[in-house]
Amino acid sequence: MPATSVGGRWHDPAMTVFTPPPATAAWQHLDVRTGFEVVYLRSTPGGYRVEGCTTAVEDGDAWVVDYIIELDPGWATRSARLTSRSARGERHLTLETDGAGHWRLDGEPAPWLDGCLDVDLESSALTNAFPVHRLHLDVGAASPAPAAFVRATDLAVERLEQHYARLPDGGGRQRYDYAAPVFDVACRLTYDESGLVLDYPGLAVRTA
């Protein structure tokens, strides 16, 4: 069941409530890279459209990733179009999914992604919003959230096993324990009232 508007707030069936997403948001990269991510969000007849750009310098290399992501009303990914630019050249990628966990990369089946409902960009803090909106976890609940993970510079696509566990809210903010074992990542993510990441320890912090 998609989210519905109640009193100007988005009310989800599992009692998670978010305000409508802002028209734009931005994050500053931390630690492993230097740079920014800027994104524009808007509702569409089919759900949501996200247009963003992330730029960074990492290990002495400068790169840019532009992306357009289409989401259904429940925030599951339906398509993503990406362009990556670096000293090694320009790359393009199109991902498409039926919303039931079956994917195509540039038109070709990608069975290793079966069961994934989200796209996760290596260069993006924004994409960590997708599972939180889609899962509607109650406090104390947890869920796996495997994703189609896209590398920044070469746009290689891998299956990424992730896990989200919702904690009691702190200071009016939703908090989740997040884990991605393949990267040895385990941290606590803090979200604003619209369900966008405010603080991703060691990776990004919200600036707008």
UniProtKB/TrEMBL annotation:
* Protein origin, superkingdom: Bacteria
Under SUPFAM superfamilies, the record lists:
PA1994-like
What the entry lists under InterPro entries is as follows: Glycolipid-bd_prot_put (IPR009467)
Q: Which protein is depicted? A: Glycolipid-binding protein
